[in-house]
Each structure stands twice: as structure tokens, then as C-alpha cells.
Amino acid sequence: MTKQLNKNIVVGISGGIAAYKSATLVRELIKAGAKVRVCMTNAATQFITPLTFQALSGNPVHTDLLDNRAEAAMGHIELARWAELIIIAPASADIMARLAHGIANDLLSTLCLASEASLHLAPAMNHIMWTNAATQANLQTLRQRDIKIHGPAIGEQACGETGAGRMLEPDAIVAKLVENQATLNKTLSLQGKHVLLTAGPTREAIDPVRYISNRSSGKMGYSIAIAARDLGAMVTIVSGPVTVPTPKNIDIIKVESAAEMHSATLAAAKSADIFIATAAVSDFSTKDIFSKKIKKTGEYLRLQLKQNADILSDVSHQFSHLFTVGFAAETHNVIKYARGKLKRKKLDLIVANPVGEGKGFDQDTNQLEIIWHDGQLSLPEKEKQTLAHELIAIIVKRYFQS
Known about the structure:
Elements: E1 8-13, H1 21-31, E2 35-40, H2 50-57, H3 75-82, E3 85-91, H4 93-100, H5 107-114, E4 118-123, H6 127-131, H7 133-144, E5 148-149, E6 153-156, E7 162-166, H8 170-187, E8 194-199, E9 204-205, E10 211-212, H9 219-230, E11 234-239, E12 251-254, H10 258-269, E13 274-277, E14 284-286, E15 305-307, H11 311-318, E16 323-330, H12 334-344, E17 349-354, E18 365-372, E19 375-383, H13 384-401
Parallel strand pairs: 1-2, 1-3, 3-4, 4-5, 8-11, 8-13, 11-12, 13-16, 16-17
Antiparallel strand pairs: 6-7, 9-10, 14-15, 17-18, 18-19
């Protein structure tokens, strides 16, 4: 199976004999490229053990609403922020009723209310329970809230009766999730669009062996480029020196200095539709570059620095047709400084993130504040590739609304 579900997925399991099928579902989701964590109700643990799912998913199974092993003993918040998609399979009549009425009296129901992830249910129950007026009313409520319902199937049930109420088979559920993702990708398509990014640090030479630079790894920029490519865009990265692997089907223009990045970016911007400036460009470079290695002649060395051209500002002012996205990496006053940069540089959107003290630069995770002129959205700390897909979806929506 191709890796079509590159997502953080929580598999919720409520009480029902169909819980045994969820073991196969976890395995199939992982085969499809998902990272899976499992959340079980107390009733579910009576049908199949948490240890089974821990072995299959490679992660501890979540069962307790207040978990003293979790940050601030609130495991549901951590799990809610981690999840990009929640699939409850089997979804009993009870969990459907509680979700329809906003009742959060266990970990699974609380998780669903506390998360912004897309929610999917695979119902499983006796056919008379399924056709009961209360269940059908709850079903309509859930659908009106854009909760995706997959199934149930019609067939023989554990009670020996036949009718609608069987949980879909795991491969059918995965197919539904893949289909839903494909529909979403089509809605967010960047087909025919050219996305230009800057990424990584710049190096400003002092002499033949020394330079001024910063801690940027380029991981965030390259992750965003991959996310844009996956939505069908033609992607160009103007990249400073990085060790990040070169992604397939993406054009890379390699540069070193801020001046080189400035020149290459302005040239590429002529044909672009969206510009995303993730590079950590050096604000200053040396006024004079020494032709030979500087030798130690005293306790101090004085260097004269000059201000580099502002790539982001120049692009936004010279190419008004571009949808321009800036990045603001700050150690303090993150939102305040980002809003100032958004206005000052005439950007359509700015992405702010805290750096320092083990955050941001050269890390595999990040957290983002996405700000535009009349709105703001927070993306909590996650792996950079996961964040990149969420961010590019927001950028695409803002681009087509502009």
C-alpha cells in the first residue's frame, strides 16, 4: 500500500465485539503511512486488551482522562493537539450519543471535544439500535457538524441477527480515509501554481575560512516545499547551505550569501504565484572580506558590518501580484514583533515561532502562530513535516480568498 495517510491518527475504540477488528485497522493505518496512537474506553478494554494495541502501534495506549504521566496530568490535551485525524472504530450507539450532545465523561469523548482534528466514526451496533429514532437523530446531528460517518455495513451480526450495524472491514475504513484525504487535497490543489521559497541560513564571509551565520537548519522550509509539491505545485527553493536531503521533483537554487539569495529570489519571483520566506537571512555582512586568513594579533578583533538588503520586503514591494508569506523567528514578544513585520513589509500572512532554549532552529519540531491582517491561528508544537502540511493548507485557503 502506498503511503497515502501521512498523518497523526488517533484510533478511538468504544465498547463492542467489533473491537477485535480495530487491531487490523491499526496495522493497516500504519502500512498506509500513518503514525497511530490508540485511545480506549473502559468498555472497550473488556473486549480486547490495551497491550494488543500497544504492541501494534508501538505507543502506550490511552485509557485515563487524568494521566499523571502526562504533561500537567492532562493527557487528553496532549493527545488532542497531536492528532490530525481521529477515527472511532467501533463507534457504539453510546459514544455517538455522547458526542452528539457534547458529553465529555471519559478520555475518548473529551479528546474529541478538545481536538480540532477531523473526526470520523465507523458505527457498530445491533441493527435495531442502529435504526432506533434516537440513534438516527444523533447521526443527523453528527453529520451536520461535518463528522464523517463510514458505514455501517449490512450483514450477519454477533447476536445472530442480520441487518445494518456491522462495522466496516478495516481495509474499507482505510480506503474511506484515503478517499477523504484525496478529496481534501483536490480542494486544496496548487496544480498549475508556482511556489517559491527561501530556506536555510546564509553565510557572510569574513575571510577564506570564517563566516557569520546562524542556527537555521532549513528543515521547516524544506518541509513546506514538500507539502506544496504534494498539493501539485511547481516548487522552487532558493536555499542557503543545509544538510537536509534534496526532495524529489523540487527545483533547488543553491546560494551562500544574503546577496546571492537576494539576486536569485528576485529573479525567480517573476514567475511565481506564492512566495514563502522561511530562510534565516543574515541581517548584516562584513563591509570588507579579508583575502587571507586573519591571524591573531591581539585580544580583540574589530569588524565593520553593513546591513544586507531585505529580501522579503523587496519581493513584497516589487511583485505586488505575489501572495507573500513571511516568517518571524523571535526569542520574545513573538506576536508583537510578527504583527509589526506583517504591516511594515506589506505581507499577506506571517508565520511566527519562538526560538532559543531548544526551540525552533535545528529541531525536528516547531510551533507556529499564523497571523494575517484580520485573523490569527495557533498550531501547537508538532513535527515540522506535520506542521508544514497544516500550514500550507492555511496558506492555500488564504491565497484563494485574497
